[in-house]
Amino acid sequence: MLEFHYSMNNQQPMSEEQEVFLNHIQKKGLKRTAQRDLILDVFLRSERHLSNEDLYRLVQEQDASVGQTTVYRTLKLLTEAGLAREVRFGDGRTHYEHNYKHEHHDHMICSECGKIIEFYSAELEALQDAMAAKHRFEISQHLLRIIGICAECRRARKQKANSDTGFQPKVRTATGRGFR
User: Fold this and answer.
1) Model confidence at 170, in pLDDT bands (50, 70, 90)?
2) Concatenated DSSP letters for 75-141?
3) pLDDT tens digits for 119-135?
4) Contact, 127 vs 115, CB < 8 A?
5) How many angstroms separate the Cα of 140 from the Cα of each of 71, 100, 132, 137, 143?
6) What is the arrangement of strands in the sheet containing 50-51, beginning at the earlier edge strand?
7) What b/e sequence results for 9-28 when a residue is b if at least 16 CB atoms lie within 10 Å of its CB, and e otherwise?
8) Mapping DSSP to helix (H, G, I), strand (E, B) and coil, where does residue 49 land?
């Protein structure tokens, strides 16, 4: 017989991620709560890299009674369940991203605006595997962060430098007699 679990707030069948989370907390002897369900739902709907504080603010918009400690503990449970993964971008905060059935990827981080660009490179993966084999090293996981300046910040930096120096690019204008 097929058994369905339903979300607490409505009679919709639970998503696969909700089922994974429910199974995980039950194995830990914890109860399913509306607050945990809300935190999971908000996390799953966001495609951003969220810090604990970011997720707390988003959850607060929907239920001001949810405490920051509850959000933090639930993020730890999501990580343990394999639904979230901790990532660090060098800003001193831990961020979380979706992990369940998401393909491996690496990150480029803009050191000026904080923009995060996810990318995958088969060539980099092959190079990492070759280096590990060369050194007889068994990879259990890897994290690649490339830190630099994104195109938008470089463009803004160039525009600011041009305006600070008074440099004005020469523009040729068309007149009735040609260019001047």
Assistant:
1) low
2) HHHHHHTTSEEEEE-SSSSEEEEE-TT----EEEEETTT--EEEE--HHHHHHHHHHHHHTT---S-
3) 889 999 999 999 999 99
4) no
5) 29, 18, 11, 10, 11
6) 50-51, 94-98, 84-88
7) eeeeebeebbebbbebbeee
8) coil
Q: Which domains does the chain have, with CATH numbers?
A: 1-102 (1.10.10.10), 104-164 (3.30.1490.190)
* β-sheet bridge partners, residue 51: 95
* The model's pTM: 0.66
Please state, in angstroms and rounded to a whole number, the distance separating the CA atoms of residues 5 and 17.
12
Q: Which amino acid is at 80?
A: E
Residue 13 DSSP label: B
Tens digit of each residue's pLDDT (9 = 90 or more) over 25-44:
999 999 999 999 999 999 99
The rounded Cα 126 to chain-centroid distance in angstroms is 24
Strand, helix or coil for residue 148: strand
